[in-house]
Amino acid sequence: MPPYSEMRKTNYFYYFIKFTLNIYSMLFSLMGLCVLCVGVYAEVERQKNRTLEGLFLAPAVVLILLGLVMFTVSVVGMVGSLRDNKTLLHMFLCVLCVLLLLQAIALTMALIFEKKTSSLFQSSIREGIKHYYDDLDFKNILDYVQQKFSCCGGNEYNDWVVNQYHSCNSTGPLACGVPYTCCVRRSVGEVINSLCGYKTLDKQRETLHEVIHVRGCIHAVNLWMSDNIGITIALCCAIGLPQLLGIILSCVFWNLLVDMSESADMVDFKLKKAEFAYSELDLAGAGWCMCLPRDGGYLPVPAAEPELDPIDVHLEKLKKQQPRTHAQLRELQQSRSATGLDEVDIGRKQKREH
Question: Could you please report the per-residue DSSP string of 85-119?
């Protein structure tokens, strides 16, 4: 296998990196477009009964922002790789590095300031519980989390007192109770009574273990992540490794384009500098994007000047010299008679000595 320094000079390596980066960017742009469409649809539905303003409580807004960032950045990378545009590729590389760095900083800060992070999520969840029946997005997410992780509320089951329907001061059938998703299921597929959490908020947690889950969802999720550390690491890698792959591909391709542009082998890079028009060049093999390399390049190489005989060179020099005076000719004749060599013979002798 040839070394990397030699392999990167071949067209096969160029094509491989180029189209791998292009396919990578295209896939993520399609994913971003799908996420953006889902977010817009969810936001349109949410606007009908808009009550939640917090970022954590508006999944549609999060999806829109995520989809917009993914689509925009991926399109920049796709166009840059397709057109061999160093500016767009450099922008794509920098944005990916910044995004990955921000995620790493956010994860580190969340681990260092664990209590503040939990407090932030707890206040956000309690705000969402207030409007539990007004926002279907948040309601569906919280119901899924409570059933999946066998928990109730944010910090504990008493968080449900902030909801006007579940408050103990309410007079409805849900008063002083919790949603049915907090109830304990004794068997898989069991039909849950929708009022199984009736009158549970005014009781001690020791008496409710057989009725509802008293543990908060924040603690339940943290415990699940600690118990399933392998899955947690896999999720982090699933988020970070694709971005790292994009950074590596774009960095390699950008450096490759820098080397190619300096060798004047690219159509797009050197046309303006060389003052050539497309109509003056044979662009066979450049592709529809007018950016594919070709052995020997596209720009015409000036023909090398033939080597002249030393006598011809001497004659050319004599033509450029000023006419000599009689005194100069007399001195030249005396020097020739003393050495027995003319100027051409002296030049050939010096050339042989070198």
Answer: -HHHHHHHHHHHHHHHHHHHHHHHHHHHTHHHHHH
Residue 125 in tokens: 């969840």
Q: How far apart are CA 6 and CA 131, in angstroms?
A: 63
Q: What tokens appear for 187 in the block? A: 């068997």
Model pTM greater than 0.85? Answer: no
Q: Is 166 helix (H, G, I), strand (E, B) or coil?
A: coil
For residue 158, the 8-state DSSP code is G
From residue 201, alpha-carbon distances to 131, 164, 181, 263, 307 in Å are 18, 13, 15, 76, 102
* Distance, CA of 329 to CA of 79 (rounded, Å): 73
Task: With H, G, I as helix, E, B as strand and everything else as coil, classify residue 147.
Answer: helix
Q: CA separation (Å) from 281 to 83, 260, 274, 277, 301?
A: 19, 19, 12, 7, 12
Alpha carbon distance 137, 66 (integer Å): 17
Hey, what are 216's tokens?
A: 């908060």
pLDDT in tens, 233-278: 999 899 899 999 999 999 999 888 887 766 644 444 444 445 556 5
Do 177 and 195 meet the contact criterion of CB atoms below 8 Å apart? yes
Q: How many CB atoms lie under 10 A from the CB of residue 36?
A: 20
d(CA 60, CA 125): 16
**Per-residue pLDDT tens over the stretch 132-142:** 888 777 888 89
